[in-house]
Amino acid sequence: MIPHNQYRRYLRYVICAVLLVFLFRLIRQSKGTNNPVEIIQGDRDFLQSYEASDELHQYSSIYFIETSAPFKRIVTIEPRQACAIESAARANPRKKVIVLFASWNEFNDPGQVRFRDLPTLARLPNVHFRWLNLEQFAQGTPVEEVIRSDKLYQRPNGAEYLSEILRLVLLYKYGGIYLDLDVVTLKKLEFYNPNFFGAETPRLVGSSVIGLERRGYGQTFAERCLSNFKYFDNQNNVRNGSFLLTYQIVQACEKLSLEEVVNGGCGGLLEVYTESFFHPFDETNVHIMFDSERLEEAKRRISKAMVVHMLHSTSRQMRIEGKPTGYQLIAETYCPSVYEENSDNF
């Protein structure tokens, strides 16, 4: 039996250890507080309307869109989504990386955006956070009535569907490269053809990585796609975006299938890259990136990739559990600041 005095001493040690752990976590969390001064000191137009950002409009930029604001009062971005932003910025230091928060109402209060990595990302010189004013953004586009429709905001997957629409409107108006918030960038995004997509499966193109030029054929292609979104209320599947893009690509290239486009090209109009470029994983095997025993297989799959689509809806609950994994490898390498801040729960 442990003497009473010794027992009390052990108990004090345990309590002190617990308090130290709690204090450590509190200090780590405090690094990610939304201090407005710290956030905006490097970006005087922080959360201002992107429609009014004339300076940024002159560039061919990389875009991310967060579409939950019309459905939630507070917008949060998870560490893995912050990783996607950091990786794009680090891999493309000469490109503007613009994170857009889509909302009908004024969205310029840092308190509306809650995620611990915001100050970290705001310090990156080529990252800009803007409000996508849906009132102005929708005007004069082929999907103006769709974006205003109550049916869209009553859908259980409304935020996802709105994202599918807005990415095409954005590229139709400004051109550039769109990335989903679960896409980790590994290499500089430079392409000989500015109009490009990536096959997600042998038969279906993905909508998580899209490049379209501001004018010329890129804008024409985007307009054709948007004209079909007016039938959104008859579509139940949020992947309507991928199905729509695939159909339009096959039609534009005068081919019978997506495989023919990938293998035979599209006469220089656009380019569709093989699955290994943007989508080395799918819903059935993305778990490989979290399996330490399959690290070499993960490395092999991403060896040719420019980006890795992490399929957040499938992998969200999967975790890095201490041992080296494929996802840990790319997080440490391509979004080191975000990973360091969140390595205990990534």
TrEMBL record:
It is found in: Golgi apparatus membrane. The keyword Flavoprotein does not apply. The chain crosses the membrane at residues 10-27. It is a single-pass type II membrane protein. One of its GO terms (molecular function) is alpha-1,4-N-acetylgalactosaminyltransferase activity. The keyword Transmembrane applies. InterPro entries: A1-4-GlycosylTfrase_dom, Glycosyltransf_32, GlycoTrfase_DXD_sugar-bd_CS, Nucleotide-diphossugar_trans. GO terms for cellular component: Golgi membrane. GO terms for biological process: glycosphingolipid biosynthetic process. Keywords: Glycosyltransferase, Golgi apparatus, Membrane, Transferase, Transmembrane, Transmembrane helix. It comes from the Eukaryota. Residues 216-340 form the Alpha 1,4-glycosyltransferase domain. Belongs to the glycosyltransferase 32 family. This is Alpha 1,4-glycosyltransferase domain-containing protein. It comes from Anopheles culicifacies. The lineage of its organism: Eukaryota, Metazoa, Ecdysozoa, Arthropoda, Hexapoda.
